[in-house]
Amino acid sequence: MIAETGHFALILAALIAAFQCVLPLAGAARGDQRLMDSGRTAAVAQFLFITVAFFSLMHAYVVSDFSVANVVQNSHSAKPMLYKIAGVWGNHEGSMVLWVLILALFGAAIAVFGRNLPHELRARVLAVQGMIGLAFLLFILATSNPFLRVDPAPMDGRGLNPILQDPGLAFHPPFLYLGYVGFSVAFAFAVAALIEGRVDAAWARWVRPWTLAAWCALTLGIALGSWWAYYELGWGGFWFWDPVENASFMPWLAGTALLHSAIVVEKRDALKSWTILLAILTFILAMMGTFLVRSGVLTSVHTFATDPGRGLFILALLLIAAVGSLGLYAWRAPGLRTGGVFAPISREGGLVLNNLLLATATATVLLGTLYPLLLEALDAGKVSVGAPYYNLTFVPIMAPLIVAMGIGPMLAWKRGDLPGVLARLRIAAIVTGIVICGAILLNDGPLMAVLGVGLACWLFMGALSELAERIRLFRIPLRESLRRLAHLPPAAIGMTVAHVSMAVIVLGITASAAWQSERVLVMAPGDGVDLAGYRVTLDRVEKVPGPNYTAERAAMSVTRKGNVVTVLRPEKRAFVTPPQTTTEAAIHTTWLADIYAVIGDPVAPKAGEGGKAGWTVRLYHNPLVPWIWIGAVIMVVGGLISLADRRHRVGAPARKTRSAETPAAGAA
Amino acid sequence: MMRALLFAASLFAAFNAAQMPAFAIGSNEALADPAQEARARELFRQLRCLVCQNQSIDDSDADLARDLRVLVRERIKAGDSNEQVLRFLTQRYGDFVLLKPPLKSSTVALWAAPFALLVVGGGVIALRARRRARPAPAALDDAERARLARLLADDERPRT
What is the pLDDT of residues A602-613, one digit of tens each? Predict the structure, then answer.
């Protein structure tokens, strides 16, 4: 009964969404306030009904209702409660319901909190949100209904893929979807602005908090996913340029570009047409990610069971959205008035360079992801595009971006003084030079490591120099500087924090890639091995029962100069339903490095050849790898600080006419 | 740098990925000479496990990946250079085996596009900037001023 309620609620939500696409649009065209307001009611109602559907499905999982096909396929009565709940979105159908739930949440948020948006704009934004909602609700109802029953109901379910039975599942997908779907708001604002034919600073100010919030969530979602991969997969790696990782990375890159170009629209009334295009493309890339994951066109373990029907449906949606929005863009964008003029060397110019590089990086990832498919479709042979390709293309595009990130924020709007800025960056340049020399002397890894360390140092020092410049550090009394710091607008501090976090991430990636130590060997209890100044000894291996698995757990003591540092307990878990083994890495972090241990299969001595009995063991020393995720968290904090800026607050008093050219006119 | 290991930890791991990475490199397989073994490992990272999904043979536990590792080690032991090993495998399995696609007519677009886009995008931006930021006109000389007065006198339409 509860499953049917959920099903029915989903159908009602689709009907409401259908009204939401039409009525507010008509209202905005005719200036009919009642019709326009109906969009708000519809958005809230749609959200409520989808919430009912979502919790109905969750109920079926929590009580293990095995008459629901989706629960049978993805759950098991012996599964821990956390994974019963998280298992709701651990499969295609359930994750689509989460997707539309988040979409409707954003729609309702616009309806409720967007009070000071112009009524026409709000009505049109809600109508576009309604269209997206309708499309995906129809997709769920037509091809991916999670509420279908099975008769007779089996005694137990088939269980959730053990790799997904991890706290990572509880958080990674919701944040990722908050990001993906959050960009739908920017898309809706862009389409609404095209219908209206007007983009101004106020528009940019309204769209930025939504974009920023979505970007923060996506950043966190990607970081969580990469951290999960790091500790769960047992390979010590964190990013693999897998097509589905790329699918989440492309909207992130485009969204980052969008955040920056929207600043130019807000402050200088320029780059309007490009910003609209970016807002459209960012969401189309997010939708394309959904298509790639669910259609089966990509071969990846991420992908759901291949289903051409679903793939065609999403492809059709994608095409309609792309052709519709880009067509509207081609028709209306030329009518947008171009605003402020600026010299190439200026803050605007820096942000244009940022957009050029980020857009090229996005296109590179897109090409690398789709090229094998294209070639195969053209019958021109099969190729693989893996990490070596991205290291040779993506990295050279990002390196100049990081150099520019150190300079751009110090340039003045309209016309910048590059020699002056470089002079003010001389301390950053000197420190970077010293660090690069030190890195060359100490580096025993690839030369790329020196480049990475240099870039990170430059960016770090550049961001701090900019902050020091703002508060006139050491040029006026320190107390006065601190007072200035306290009065800086949050957006300015957010930018500094986000840029510093990028330096931290670059350093983490560089160090862990260049200076990783690895030992792969067969160890018997009592054996020890040296790893980057530590000695790792295998003490014992024992069998340990778990709730729905049995594990072989090793105890490895790690010592440094005779002192015990820690005891690592990596596990290999054997699940029964479905029959599968997973590795649970044991990680000891010093925050400067991780010691990472994985235990594998037992090895028997080969007959005749001798050899050793024991367990295969893989040990890593990963320098600075935690900084990647620390950096990502700092980046999100930077985004949130910026979001706290009054000017970005959704409910902030309409517009202030005071010139934005005070020294506070920050960025990011 | 980063291995093209299958990142199964995302949401949608399919059940057919049942062979999760347990251990790709049985240490019993390793070559005795550390320099040769290091070369082998470097090659593993560039080679795709053909039956897996986007995994390198360094990261895969599949039988075929193991066979390929054995093959690579044999070739290295026999004295092949890295290029010779890669050529040998490409002849057998096609370009699909290489995680770094070779430069040829069908992949020119793949390799050239990122840099072409950068150049074209930069060019478009530069052109537009130049068109927009025309230098401020110099002051009019006497002849020009006279011509302007004549034009204004001729012109009957009001200027907005």
Answer: 877 766 555 678
Q: How many domains does chain B have?
A: 2
Mean pLDDT confidence for A9-15: 97
Neighbours of A563 (CB within 10 A): 7
Asked whether residue B10 is domain-assigned, the answer is no
pTM summary value: 0.88
CA-CA distances (angstroms) from residue A470 to A60, A429, A460, A474? 56, 18, 16, 11
Q: Residue B13 is nearest to which of A163, A225, A371, comparing CB atoms?
A: A163
Short-list A667, A627, A662, CA closest to A512: A627
- Which residues in chain B (95-124) have CB-CB distances under 8 A to chain A? 95-101, 106-107, 109-111, 113-115, 117-118, 121-122
**Partner-chain residue, chosen from A363, A367, A386, that has the shortest CB–CB distance to B100:** A386
* Structure ipTM: 0.82
User: Rounded to whole angstroms, how far apart are CA atoms A221 and A172?
Assistant: 5
Digit-coded pLDDT (tens) for A422-455? 999 999 999 999 999 999 998 887 888 999 999 9
Residue B136 lies in domain: 105-154
Q: Quick one: pLDDT at residue A43?
A: 96
Position B105, amino acid: S
CATH number at residue B86: 1.10.8.640
Kindly report, residue by residue over B9-18, the tens digit of the pLDDT.
333 333 333 3
Chain B residues whose CB is inside 8 A of the A305 CB are 14
Q: Please tell me whether residues B93 and B24 are part of one structural domain.
A: yes
Residue type, A310: R
Which residues touch A183 (CB under 8 Å, ≥6 apart)?
A211, A214, A218, A251, A255, A279, A282, A283, A286
Whole-number Cα distances in Å, B74 to B39, B62, B79: 12, 19, 9
Q: For the purposes of burial, counting CB atoms within 10 Å of the CB of A145, is it exposed (0-12), middle (13-18) or buried (19 or more)?
A: middle
